């Protein structure tokens, strides 16, 4: 079954996020003249219709999942930043081996550096967004814990019957599990993104330090200039003739 066929089979199915929360139901698709599905129309629980990009939807046989845009962007940046950095390092190695001219190296290096700086800027902006989402999850977990405590209190004093208590308890626990999982994913995502940014900078500093150390080592290994040594003065030996005595 093609991807386009899967999209049409998704109509009428529930759309959930990656943590199992129900977002709504797929009600229609936006298809361009070439037959490619560009987006899907989702009817939410309150009756409103929202539009989701096709690339953010994952369709299985029985489920339609809305992928996190934040996670997709973070994954993309974590792949792109090291790749551009490695290309720039390969470029430096090529000019060192005289396989390309310094002019070509400088031109391409500026291009790679520009792309790398842009990607880092995007990563920093995304990190701030992740911080906000982590704060949202933290608040949600706090609210759910308070909801659980209040449920326990009302059940304890007999205002909530056992069946209602068990149903509500299960719902809150499931929501807590999803919120904690999402928060853990966001924290791991932020850590990986930060390590990519800091690791790139740290590695550059280490390489520069190694180059400086190598240059200093070459200078130190050069033999010191010595002035030519002067010849030893000649030794004069006086020999006394036999049969003569000193006066």
Tell me what the structure shows.
The protein is α+β, with helices and mostly antiparallel strands. The protein has 2 domains: 3-67, PRC-barrel domain (SH3 type barrels, Roll), CATH 2.30.30; 70-214, no CATH class. 61% of the residues lie in helices and 13% in strands. It contains 4 helices and 6 strands. The chain has helices spanning 3-9, 69-96, 102-156, 162-221, and strands at residues 14-17, 22-31, 37-44, 49-53, 57-59, 64-66. The chain has a 6-stranded mixed beta sheet with strand order 4-3-2-1-6-5. Strand 2 (22-31) and strand 3 (37-44) form a beta hairpin. Helix 2 (69-96) packs antiparallel against helix 3 (102-156), helix 2 packs parallel to helix 4 and helix 3 (102-156) runs antiparallel to helix 4 (162-221). The radius of gyration is 37 Å and the shape is flat.
Quick recap:
The chain is an alpha+beta fold. 61% of the residues lie in helices and 13% in strands.
The structure class reads alpha+beta
Uncertain residue segments? 224-231, 233-247
Q: Tell me the strand percentage band.
A: 5-15%
Count of individual beta strands: 6
Distance between the termini: 132 Å
């Amino acid at each position: 079954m093609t991807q386009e066929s899967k999209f049409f089979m998704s109509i009428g199915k529930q759309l959930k996020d990656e943590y199992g929360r129900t977002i709504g139901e797929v009600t229609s698709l936006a298809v361009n003249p070439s037959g490619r599905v560009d987006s899907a129309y989702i009817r939410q629980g309150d009756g409103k219709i929202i539009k989701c990009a096709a690339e953010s939807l994952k369709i299985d046989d029985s489920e339609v999942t809305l992928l996190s845009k934040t996670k997709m962007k973070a994954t993309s940046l974590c792949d792109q930043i090291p790749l551009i950095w490695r290309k720039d390092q390969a470029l430096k190695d090529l000019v060192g081996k005289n396989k390309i001219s310094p002019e070509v190296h400088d031109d391409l290096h500026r291009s790679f550096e520009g792309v790398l700086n842009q990607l880092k800027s995007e990563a920093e902006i995304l990190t701030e967004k992740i911080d906000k989402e982590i704060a949202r999850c933290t608040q949600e977990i706090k609210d759910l814990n308070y909801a659980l405590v209040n449920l326990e209190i009302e059940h304890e004093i007999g205002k909530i019957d056992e069946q209602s208590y068990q149903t509500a308890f299960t719902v809150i626990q499931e929501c807590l599990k999803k919120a904690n999982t999402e928060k853990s994913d966001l924290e791991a995502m932020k850590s990986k993104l930060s390590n990519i940014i800091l690791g790139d900078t740290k590695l550059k500093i280490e390489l520069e330090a190694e180059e400086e150390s190598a240059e200093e080592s070459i200078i130190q290994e050069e033999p010191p200039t010595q002035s030519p040594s002067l010849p030893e003065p000649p030794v004069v030996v006086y020999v006394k003739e036999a049969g003569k005595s000193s006066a």
